[in-house]
Amino acid sequence: MSHNSFGHLFRFTTWGESHGPALGVVVDGCPPNLTVSAEIIQHDLDRRKPGQSRFTTQRKEADEVEILSGVFEDERTGGLKTTGTPIALEIKNTDQRSKDYSDIRDKYRPGHADYTYDQKYGIRDYRGGGRSSARETAARVAAGAVARLVIPDVKIRASLVQMGPYKINYENFSWDEVDNNPFFCADKSAAQSWEPYLDGLRKSGESIGAVIEVVAEGVPAGWGAPVYGKLSADLASAMMSINAVKFVEIGAGMEAASLTGTQNADEMRAGEPAPYFKSNNAGGILGGISNGDPVVVRFAVKPTSSILAIRETVTTQNKNTEIVTKGRHDPCVGIRAVPIGEAMMACVLADHFLRHRGQTGREGPTGF
Fold it and tell me: At what angle are helices 137-150 and 38-48 packed, to 10 degrees?
């Protein structure tokens, strides 16, 4: 199987399956002499790991990361430093329950990649989907933690902004609230109202989709390229590569189609030390290049396809049958997609930072 790598100068390759002994990632292109530790990476992994509330899968994985290569204990300066060589990270799987999938080994789960995977490769790991499982995203989050070290002046945060038909009120938006509720939601009131809603869906064996907003502040003007290296294109690709994502928008996104040119174009004024924009419909990107405003990306995650309701499907022998997906599943997989979105944003920005520096010899804009 090819296509397990993402990025250019900052590039990562993930490996492992949902029910294998371990999964992990190899990060290539990380600059040397950056201070790193398992604890730094673990912080991000702990936000994504399962079983932290009744609103996520009850699979109990510690998701403890081990650094296997690419670092050195520098006795002169103290601490673990990156060496500039590939950084290999491993995360053991400790709570697999493969027997949960024995009843469906010869059936295709609706909404999953079972059928397409089988048609492409002629073989599939039916235990949780193998490589197509969202379990793979733990490795991405580990890579994202390394990427953040490359761009320490960039602050990347994300929030769940919609669950099913229920949206947050942006007048209540506070980043301080994100880690105070089980939904990573910046609107305290919305998070409180979502609890009984998702409880009802969870108890009935149903699921629901969500929208996540990722914001990167501190990105200077100049990252990206105007044709085939657009920052916006790489961000869209990164978010669309996350399991269950069906839609990505930047800035005003789809809403831009209903605006006039006067309404949509962000007006500019002179400022110190550089011009500024009076609005941010562009989402921090113009012509594929960052403009110095916050980079704003939203993506929509479909409802979890593994539900307890009886569904019609076919067998691997093309015979009609019915299926019930047992096991431990997220009633709203979008919740744990919040730290995953942050990680993919970090990886793209780290890559574009290195690409910009490599082409221009500068880390930021030309100035005035």
Answer: 130
| Residue 204 CB neighbour total at 10 angstroms | 12
Tens of pLDDT, residues 353-362: 999 999 999 8
pLDDT (tens digit, 9 = 90+) per residue, 141-150?
Answer: 999 999 999 9
DSSP one-letter string for 213-265: EEEEESPPTT-B-SSTT-HHHHHHHHHHTSTTEEEEEETTGGGGGGS-HHHHS
Are 161 and 182 in contact, with CB atoms under 8 Å apart?
A: no
Q: How much of the chain, in percent, has pLDDT values that exceed 70?
A: 93
How far is residue 176 from each of residues 45, 56, 137, 180, 189, measured CA to CA in Å?
A: 20, 22, 25, 8, 13
Q: Residue 12 and residue 218: Cα distance in Å, rounded? A: 23
Q: How many CA atoms lie within 13 A of 185 on its CB side?
A: 25
